[in-house]
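Shipment paperwork, digital attachment
Item: protein structure file
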Amino acid sequence: MTAGTRSRRNELPYWLSAPGMLVVLALVALPLIVTLSLSFFAFLPGGGVGEQITFANYADIASDGYFHTIFARTFGMSVMVTLICIVLGVPEAYVLSRLSARWRAVSMVIVLGPLLISVVVRTLGWAILLGNEGVINKVLMATGVVSEPIKMMFTLGGVVMALVHVLVPFMVLAVWASLQKLDPAIEQAAQSLGAGLPTMLARIVFPQVIPGVLSGGLIVFALAASAFATPAIIGGRRLKVVPTSIYDEFLGNLNWPLGAALSVVLLVIVLMISIGVNRWVERRYKQVFQ
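Attachment content:
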């Protein structure tokens, strides 16, 4: 084989991936660069964008207590959704991995079912369930559990409940993928040595699926922090989060630079949290198994 042939073979993967890279640059990287550059311009009354570079938009976000509140609410909501998805998704994935092939196929359809329906349709369904005249309140009042409707719409709890329904399949799939690498003989050995189910799950199964829990948790956290449709419909206009505030700045106030700055700050914080948690868990994970 000549040197020229080896060189062409070494370059082949780059040529094959070039179309995909161009699509990513055009549809992902370029909009992000435009958004970042827009955030450094000043807002002119009437919906215009100034020509001078300024950090005023970021200064407003850093100094205004209103933005501090919506960022705290957004990330607090995302953490709650992530924790609930872990609590629900890990056992569900474990049971799914232990089913027979036939029942596993049926269960996978049930788990993935919510992903096959539009987020808006699912959220509107939750609005019907959670309203004062919704199904849940009618059942509770008919059975005498409550004497008046429980306020669930336009509350943080209602938004968290709807987001968990939307995002828990991502956690189940991530953990289930990790469980496929787990050797059943390890569990059988633990049981033969007298380990009960709680001990086996805590000391053998769960440590092995930490990578799946981590990847699923990061996906759920990022999607919850950037969710727009569910907080907008269930939370309404009074329960602001960062994505709905970005929407208001872009299309309501026509303050594109401030909306772009909010988008950049949200992206940076999500990336920092994701990278930090990933490194912390990996460090602890290595210490446990060294």
